[in-house]
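Q: Two folds, back to back.
A: First:
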Amino acid sequence: MAGIYFHIPFCKRICDYCDFYKSADLRRLGAVAEAMHRELDARRDYLRGEPLRTRYFGGGTPSLCPPELLGSLLEHTARLFDCSQVEETTLEANPDDLTPEYLAALRRLGIDRLSIGVQSFDDDCLRLLNRRHSAARAIEALRDARREGFDNLTIDLIFGIPGFGGDSLRRTLDTALETGVEHISAYHLTIESNTAFGRRMAQGRFAPVEEAVSEEEFLEVHDRLTAAGYEHYEVSNFARPGFRARHNAAYWHGVRYLGIGPAAHSFDGGERHWNPSSVERYIEGAAAENETLTERDRYNEYVMTRLRTVEGIDLREVAGRFGTERAARIPEAVRPWVERGTVVIRGERVSVPPRRMLLSDAVIETLFET
């Protein structure tokens, strides 16, 4: 089973923390959509006949797309790929775009999961982030989505925002739980150099929270959400039983996926491909770049993705895919982490307990082969 991802790189407003490729020139949306149709035709054999399990519109802000544009991409996909076993069709959305009429149209298209970029339920925090919605509008959008029949909703939240931990974070978590959404993605703010926050930091006008604060807020998020019945199944992801993000699991478990659109990435099992991060070059038909993964690349990627999930590393799988020597080295390499309680070994499983997942990157570095 495979996945398909449509990258819609357009936004009405650029958030001050965002490091993804995006454009605020909405005049090019139609031309990009036409190019996406051409790319679908050109890459119809990329998944080698494998049925699609998931379809995902990401961005950017896909909810800026009229329903007709989204529908045409889904219809075109159904003509080229086996969609008879699709289990999940997701659209990322900004709360401001989710009117009852738009939500009803999405339902008619077969979109059954919404990923809504809330980030915070604190209006002052939203202004700092340069979001274009208010907390009240986010709550209203979630209620409207329920009324239109959506029963699989996920929201994004950000923690680790200077000045908005403590009571602000607790109020945001309280409100998130009150909405009853099935899935919550909670990300620690990362300050990248090519963002508004990054430029302010370079000028000494903005600074990340201290490491101790990061850990405190991570544990606050973990404890509050798991106590409410959410499973902390990946570093940044929490789900009600049965509502894990199926599309994202493709990235974590090495499943084939095809990415369509500017800056979209694809993986065919042995190679990675990525489209140019330029609307203009994509429209002109610039070729994708590619990288063939060596066995060491595949091993490192396996370690990186698996240790970010609650299941962790399966030593039997490592032995089968990468050799018994690598499998034997892992328990010894992580022994210092085991002694600190950051890594747990149970039988053939090596994992980072969810409460310690903030340290998973450090554990991963221990096992990387250079």
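A: Second:
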Amino acid sequence: MKVLQINTIVGAGSTGRIVEDILEMVIKHGDDGRIACAIDNSSEKLSGKIYKIGGRKNVRLSHAIASRITDRSGFYSRQATKKLIKYIEHEGFDLIHMHNLHGYYLDISLLFEKLAKMSVKVVWTFHDCWPMTGHCTYFDYIGCEKWKYQCGKCPQRKKYPKSIIVDNSRKNYVDKKQLFHLLSYIIVTPSAWLEDICRESFVSDRFVKKIPNGIDLRSFYPRDVSGLRHRYKIENKFVILAVSAGWNMRERNDRKGLADILELRKKLDNTYVIIMVGFKDEASMRGLPEGIIGVKKTRSLDELAEWYSVGDVFINPTKEEVLGMVNIEALACGTPVITYNTGGSPETVDDSCGIVLEKGNIDALRQAIIACRKENFEKEDCINRAKLFDKEKCYEEYYELYCQMLKTDI
């Protein structure tokens, strides 16, 4: 079996780690796996397994600039896509596994037209809602339902993938709907929530399978954090932890609940401390109120696991979420989770290890934290819940799907 995965990035970020883990699983079975990506942050062990799409950085930059003017993200990078197609034809892959196709690096019209003429099986993992909309990657936060019938006059035109001049959301929607029906493929979603969204969209006629994203339980497990607590002088505090790659006090993007966390801080006494991990730099932390500690984002899984282990409770007041990998990582480190009832986030917890709240109810969030302090969840229950998302188990499901597809007419 020869498998090619296509994604914006490899070796960093959530999807970048996922494609690398799936590649390792394919290789473990003795098969040939490769990854085609625009951004390569992979380790040396994957040398020879990565095909760089576009080559130079300015290729993605020109795509990004053009899409900001025309709102046609995903319909540029034609030469880079032609070269990718030639690579696919030359290597003779049995199966193509697509992930995020947005990210300013592909011409999806050319890709789908060419794949439709090849005798190759195709799997497409939806990591967000971009395949089903005329512009945005998420619509839950603003409650938009235009994706159900036809996009247009997009209320999130200036959000990623940003367009500052033209609104082409209707044309994008129509073109995607047509393109995505040119070839056969199986859709995989990480959550039941996104699976349901697919069934209400223009891809409702496609076979959809749920395979959760997995985490590495060899990296995420309870750590001794007495030194970390001493360093930050929080030995006698009840630690509330929040993790996101996008915290920024200057931009105040509230998709991950920054405003709710700031409001929550006002409702807690000084026996509590909130630690927010994931700021870009010192400048992005500027303005944090007393009682909140900002920590820069890290690519070290060991360091991240230490922070998860520091928390007495993990909060995820997210407004948009496909699954909630941070919830699972916290659980694996023995930390109970409080999350909003948003997207697939509630699917990561049950009554033994967490609490699900109405979105935006800060008073309920405060009460849930107090309840966690009075009645501690058992670490073992949290860890057992996380085991359901063991990457070894989850990504083995992909391999079984690959084998099934190659044996049948799916």
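Q: And?
A: Residues 391-407 form the longest helix (17 residues).
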